[in-house]
Amino acid sequence: MNTADRQSHETVESPYEDIGAVGALGAAAIDLMIGGRELYSVFVRTLYYVARGRREKGALLRQMYEIGNRSVFFLSVTMGFLGMILVYQAGLQAKRVVPDYTLLGATYLELLVRDFAASLGALMLATRVGAGIAAEIGSMVVTEQIDALRMCAADPIDFLIKPRFIASMVMTMVLVIWAGTVAFVAGGFTAYFAFEVPLQTFFNHQLVDFGDITIGLTKCVAYGAAIPIVSGYCGLSTFGGSEGVGWATTRAVVNTSLAIIILNFFISGAGFLIFPE
Amino acid sequence: MAALTSPSKAEATPSFAANVGTSFLDIAETAGGMTILLARVIARVVPPRVDSRELLKNLYKMGVKSLPIVAVTALFTGAIMVIQAATIVKRYGAEGLLGWGAGFGTLREIAPLLTALMISGRVGANNTAELGTMVVTEQLDALRVLAIDPISFLIAPRFISIVSTLFMMTLFADALALFGAAYTGEALLGVSPTTFYNGLTSGLLGFGDVATGLVKSVVFGVVIGLASCHFGLATKGGAPGVGRAVNATVMASAAGVFVLDYLTSFALGG
User: Model-level pTM?
Assistant: First the structure.
């Protein structure tokens, strides 16, 4: 009796226990589908409210300050170090193959414009901004402020996600351009001090063409949109009290980073096919 | 009298110097706390006094459960590296160098770095949330009352698990990223995986490149483990404090990983 009791209790605790490998795969696929559908719904509703929502004075500026200005220091430090590492590693490799540093700066700038500035900058923003958005909205969910909003006939997406969405689109673009500049200048000085490449040789933009800039800016727009949507969705789906906020933050960081890497893959692939130069 | 009225004003607009001083003291406090924590953990590890059941549980929870996310990240990262190298390879028509170009970037930098960022997001943040919740619900005090050392029962197993998880995940990520890179090269550039493999092993890349990446992964693991345990233990202010601690962990880990990546690259040299 006692054993049976405990067994039934365990079945209630974990319903996925004895469904086998195929069942577990199916459960994961269904979870993924439901998550994808809800994410899509958040995205579409955000776009709708961007076009037709109410305008709240000051909300957008506050979010732009929160997302943009307060990330500048963090982003400058990380991207500055990243620029130094990338040039140092590239220089070491160039020494092994072709001991010629004349195109080091130009190639580095091309890669920076096309990929690294946007993708690594956005990964940094995903940790800072994404975690912040999820923690803020998550704690509003567990303290039932979101339900209060709904009772006042204010859609939390209009009220909370929309300003973050617009602010993040604008500020991601601005911050990525800033981060790219920091990374390039830091790289230039590394090349100067470690490999004695003159700064005039390093600061060379002849390899950057229209395609590179288009791909880079497309990435900025896509990441800027993805960060608030994914982390806002993770925040809104918080459950389980105060502990849940911690898990929501975790999920936001991981899912936003994954979204950025997957978007990067598709945009880079499409960019390579459209601008094959 | 003036002292009574001024604090609110001073809090509203602290001067620039005060801001710099406060953030400097904060950074010093964090760095000091993490160093002390590291010393305490080492003291529990050297003659091993670590709870082995807790260690196994954490290794499973942090290592095995992170495998899918690391695999997805690594496959896509390898593919992206090939796409980026493709332009240069096409320009010079050097298809044999594709394996080298994608391989050196992946093995030395990108695979350890991105794995560390993903593990810091998934494992480090999770760990802080868990420890922080324990701290604010006074479970750590309960452990001390039962004469159980929280460092050897909770912290040391987590720290060891994070470091070894990151090391093993970087090994996986290296392999999977190169796998993804080889097949993207075939699909996109028509470079066969054999050519890719030859470029990888033709002598331009050696064991040193793989080892550099692995040394970095251990360094990153130490940073992430220390940051997540430190901020988890330093949680205060109830439930909202847990959210703030998680946020602080993620940012400190990311900044620490980048700064130490730079220092390790220089220290290991070519």
Answer: 0.85
